[in-house]
Amino acid sequence: MWKTVVRRLLVMIPQIIILSMIVFTVAHFMPGDPFTGQLDPNIDPQQLDALREAAGWNDPLPIQYFRWVGNVFQGDFGKSYAQQVPVTTLIGSRAANSLRLGLVSTFFTYAIALPFGLFAGRYNESWFDRIVMVYSYVSFAIPTFVLALIMVYFFGYRLGWFPTRGSVSSSLTAGTGAYYWDMFYRLLLPGFTGGVLGTASTIQTLRNEVIDAKTQDYVRTARSKGVPEGKIYSKHIFRNAFLPIASSIGFIFSSLLNGSVFIERIFAFNGMGDLFITSITSRDYSVVITLVLLYGVIAIIGSLVSDIVLSLVDPRIRID
């Protein structure tokens, strides 16, 4: 298995290189440049050209790319044009919040999807199954920003149960119990929102697996031997139905982490998603390129993690 993991890691190298080329090229085809709109509109155009020349923006694109790659190998992803700090420092200050949000969203996804999918499959065509299917279709169809706005309005403004802005109160002292409690409390509503959005595919997959497993020969054999129905589901059907869910855990976590852009923006949550939107609007290309590349790497790693988890859950399966 470790040989397979090493091979997959080696395969990731050309994938990341190709991804970096695409991201770097597309970013430089965006309208404007990092200096557009950040300076006095009455500034002398020659002075603006001098700034672009000093930053290397007048060089051919391949030269800019290889210069950027050389800096990346030295741990230098550039400097934020908008905030005048290193990109690694800026993203590092937001990464922990996004990671916590992704973990909480993943928890809510499985906390909702597992019981819904299992019982909908066991009691398919029942009233509970129909309710779950309606919920699944709605959660799949509703746009992220619409659900986030509904959550903010209903649970934040109407009921007042949760704060709707920020990742932690600025009035609290870092490291105290109140500080960490406030941080956790502010994670619940955006985390629940992301979790709801990630349940549809898991519910559908688990439900279909349970329904299919009920017709298998090993289930008929267990019933003919008088095995209690509850034990048939817990020991045989549910265990086998979990395999495709286990294989997708890496994909689900990476998609929730990468897809939290709108949630972070609407909840004013200081994570990488909020930084991504801000960087695009301010044409802060060094930050945009690094974030998109980071999201791509996370997705690639998520695929590898899913394969490893599946091979651990079911020893009969070996990733090749």
Automatic annotation (TrEMBL):
Domain ABC transmembrane type-1 intervals: 95-306
Entry superkingdom: Bacteria
Keywords: Cell membrane, Membrane, Transmembrane, Transmembrane helix, Transport
Organism: Atopostipes suicloacalis DSM 15692
Name under which the protein is recorded: Peptide/nickel transport system permease protein
GO biological process: transmembrane transport
GO CC terms, sorted: plasma membrane
Family per similarity comment: Belongs to the binding-protein-dependent transport system permease family.
Family annotation (Pfam families): BPD_transp_1, BPD_transp_1_N
InterPro entries, per database record: BPD_transp_1_N (IPR045621), MetI-like (IPR000515), MetI-like_sf (IPR035906)
Gene3D superfamilies: MetI-like (1.10.3720.10)
Record flagged with keyword NAD: no
Compartment(s) where it occurs, according to its Swiss-Prot or TrEMBL record: Cell membrane
Membrane-spanning residues: 9-30, 99-120, 132-155, 187-206, 241-267, 287-313
Membrane topology: Multi-pass membrane protein
